[in-house]
Amino acid sequence: MYRSVGLICAVILFGTSSTGAQYSATVTIQANQPGAVVSSNLFGSFFEEINHAGDGGIYGEMVRNRSFAESSSPDFWSLTTKGTATGTMTVDTSLPINKDHLASLKVTMTSGSGSLAAVNDGYWGMSLQSGATYDLNLYARSAAGFSGPIQARLQNSSGSTVYAQGSIGGLTTNWQQFSMSLVSSGTDTNGQLALNISTVGSMWLGEISVFPRATFNSRTNGLRPDLASLLVANCPSFICYPGGNFIESYNVTNAVRWKKTIGDIASRPGHLNDSWGYWSTDGYGLDEALRQCEDMGMQMLYGMNAGLCLGYNGDTNNTVPLDQMGPWVQDVVDLIQYANGDTNTTWGALRSANGHPEPYNMNYLEIGNENGGSYLNDRYTLFYDALKSNYSSIHLIASGGNWTGGPPWSRPVEIVDEH
Description:
By secondary structure, the chain is of the alpha+beta class. A six-stranded parallel sheet has the order 4-16-19-20-21-22. Helices cover 17% and strands 33% of the residues.
């Protein structure tokens, strides 16, 4: 039971020992005699792209495999036909949208009458709400002699009920971007997107996105408001992002590189999340995370790859040699300029062009994730010297608790992440 006496709280505990004896104890808390001052910055959130925490989770995108980069097969897409229509659907790389998106979906109606559709179920079904607006964006081109139209539909899982639809016409042999707003007439937690054609011919589709108009703080390319609101309710003072093994990967080529996670989603190639076995669109990238910090009133604690991947042992697949660390160190220096720099700086100007002229005032940066020992120590030296000579006020956090071989010792360590 609990008994409050002024500023003194007594907690009386009752119990029974393993031998059956009864016992009691009293703990008295003198709230008018506070002890150590505890920092308000110690309680925060930790994000990692694991189990679809981002793609399919807090990130608002509803189409799964929107850029067809996951494999040579059209994963998570299916081909449906009505009437006597026949056709094919394949991933094609013959004419990329741009240098960042090499693959597209080729859909061909070869014969018959009726219709043929490329269908996407999203992440375990698209959750549609009656009266809600959904923004469809895609790139499309066609073979000579075919100009559409494409009928875009939000529908139920069998295709028997259409909740919203619109038409896209004027396709040419060159890539064009098309957009439309779709308002759902019904609620369905297992909806689909269907892109239908009813004329013989071929079309190519790329970077297909369906986004709810209602996002957290009405941000473009933003977060699901339901999940983001739950985070706000926790009153976090910071977020550790992008977090965990996702930072490292098993192979250097799959490590997170922040410069590929900013700006237009059509310029984000995405990468294989080989730590957890699926593709990451990087749609919930640095821009979105920094805006999230601003919207939630918390600090960004960005975690940088230290040139070490999971199982690092000197192999160039998972360890960047010291004499090749220059670009990795420069990435960290550029990151601070992107987040905090004036608009007359190279990266500050790009941040402004990406929609945020004001600096974010990022203060915390972590070097490495669960790294330690001499491998981390040698690389921490490079990061520390470069960062402190350019941005002395940045607080550096070193990975490398004692269980990983200890934190670095060659340079001062302000904070250690024991992870």
